[in-house]
């Protein structure tokens, strides 16, 4: 039986359009090599027959699980090399019949599955964000931005790119004094504090489902002297009340789910002032709707679903809103994830002390596989500017660069040392 499984694996591996050379040491000791010399080389070892069988049946889920458990060992090359070999020529399409079959089953399960209720949403957030926060501090920037950065140049480092992301969003929001702002899914509060401290918004309300995030955001507001203008609540967006001049949501919409897209935008319209502006920043797909990677949804972001424009636009229209601008950020998240992974690797011993070696392997796979998805598959970041009326933003996009220049000057003023008093 084991010999038969190995022969099936051999044929399956050779059927994949590999972008480089992959060598696999099978449990029996047999060596299988496939691919070509036009790309990097990597070698892995499968430790047991059960690992080989599960990899054949469901590679999308099991590759990451087996790597995390140490049952797949990378013996030559880097993890980004391995993922490039596997994905760069398939572009995310199902390379094996088993992958297509499992994708169809997951699509059906998603269609008949339970909706993202407030209780389920809280549990999903806790799964990812209730780790020891020290772990996030190992690789995030000083503002603790846990979303796609905005690389104005290839030479930008992570800290500069994350500042640029906040600046870019504030510019698109036309954020400024006199405004009330709602930040849906505010994370650790970095963007909310930027809108209050740099853009000068009068009142910013950040909402999150993570108690740890809320506590850190409140502490940061106190430390920066912004507690009077930036407030944070442990609250589901469906429970928020009031009207806001500006609404922003970064990295939260991926957790709403298609069944609730229309409800999300109807609530946004109800909360947005008549002359208000909303900016939605979300990971999405440029291809047709497709189930989110099975390993990611099981182990990292349960309940996650990446939207397409074809799914969002009808919901926006039916909610009585209009899209005033769309920007597609290509490769920005790949650069961000590569920077996070480099920082995490630099401080891996600290992570191992905090959470153990298995967690480190899981996190390494998470960062590297997501980077590969943004490099080789149809995964991008959408920034949708949304309004209730068509006359609330300027006629051309020139205002964005002008606003960014003003915000950059304000950042410099706030960062300048205070002169000593004689």
What does this molecule look like?
This protein is α/β, with parallel strands linked by helices and 422 residues long. It folds into two domains: 110 residues, 2-Layer Sandwich (Nonspecific Lipid-transfer Protein, Chain A); 298 residues, Rossmann fold (3-Layer(aba) Sandwich), CATH 3.40.50. The longest helix is centred in the last third of the chain and has 20 residues.
Considering the chains and any ligands shown, give keywords for the structure.
about 425 residues, alpha/beta, Nonspecific Lipid-transfer Protein, Chain A, Rossmann fold, 2 domains, seven-stranded mixed β-sheet, four-stranded mixed β-sheet, 11 strands, about 20% strand
Percent of residues in beta strands: 15-25%
Q: What's the shape?
A: elongated
Q: What's the end-to-end separation, in Å? A: 86 Å
Number of strands: 11
The ordered string of helix (H) and strand (E) elements is HEEEHHEHHHHHEHEHEEHEHHEHHHEH
The CATH architecture of the largest domain is 3-Layer(aba) Sandwich
**Count of all domains:** 2
């Amino acid at each position: 039986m084991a010999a038969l499984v190995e022969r099936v694996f051999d044929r399956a591996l050779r059927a994949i359009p590999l972008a480089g050379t992959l060598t696999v040491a099978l449990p029996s000791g047999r060596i299988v090599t496939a691919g070509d010399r036009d790309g990097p080389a990597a070698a892995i070892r499968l430790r047991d027959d059960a690992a080989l069988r599960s990899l054949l049946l469901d590679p999308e889920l099991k590759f990451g699980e087996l790597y995390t458990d140490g049952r797949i060992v990378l013996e030559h090359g880097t993890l980004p090399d391995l993922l490039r070999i596997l994905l760069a020529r398939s572009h995310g399409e199902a390379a094996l019949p088993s992958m297509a079959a499992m994708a169809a089953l997951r699509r059906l399960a998603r269609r008949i599955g339970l909706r993202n209720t407030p209780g389920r949403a809280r549990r999903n957030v806790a799964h990812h964000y209730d780790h020891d926060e020290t772990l996030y501090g190992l690789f995030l920037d000083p503002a603790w931005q846990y979303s796609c950065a905005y690389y104005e140049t290839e030479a930008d480092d992570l800290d500069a790119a994350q500042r640029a992301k906040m600046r870019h969003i504030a510019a698109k929001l036309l954020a400024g004094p006199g405004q009330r702002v709602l930040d849906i899914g505010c994370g650790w509060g970095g963007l909310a504090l930027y809108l209050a401290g740099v853009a000068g918004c009068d009142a910013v309300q950040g909402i999150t489902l993570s108690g740890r995030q809320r506590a850190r955001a409140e502490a940061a507001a106190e430390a920066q002297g912004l507690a009077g203008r930036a407030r944070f609540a442990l609250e589901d967006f469906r429970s928020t009340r009031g009207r806001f001049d500006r609404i922003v949501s970064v990295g939260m919409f991926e957790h709403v789910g298609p069944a609730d897209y229309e409800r999300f935008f109807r609530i946004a319209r109800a909360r947005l002032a008549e002359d208000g502006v909303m900016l939605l920043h979300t990971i999405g797909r440029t291809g047709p709707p497709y189930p989110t990677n099975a390993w990611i949804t099981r182990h990292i972001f349960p309940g996650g679903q990446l939207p397409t424009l074809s799914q969002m636009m009808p919901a926006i229209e039916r909610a009585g809103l209009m899209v005033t601008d769309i920007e597609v950020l290509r490769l920005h998240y790949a650069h961000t994830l590569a920077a996070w992974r480099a920082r995490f690797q630099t401080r891996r011993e600290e992570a191992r002390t905090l959470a153990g070696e298995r967690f480190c392997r899981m996190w390494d796979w998470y960062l590297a596989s997501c980077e590969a998805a943004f490099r080789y598959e149809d995964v991008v970041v959408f920034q949708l500017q949304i309004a209730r009326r068509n006359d609330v933003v300027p006629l051309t996009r020139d205002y964005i660069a002008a606003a960014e220049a003003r915000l950059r000057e304000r950042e410099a003023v706030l960062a300048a040392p205070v002169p000593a008093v004689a």
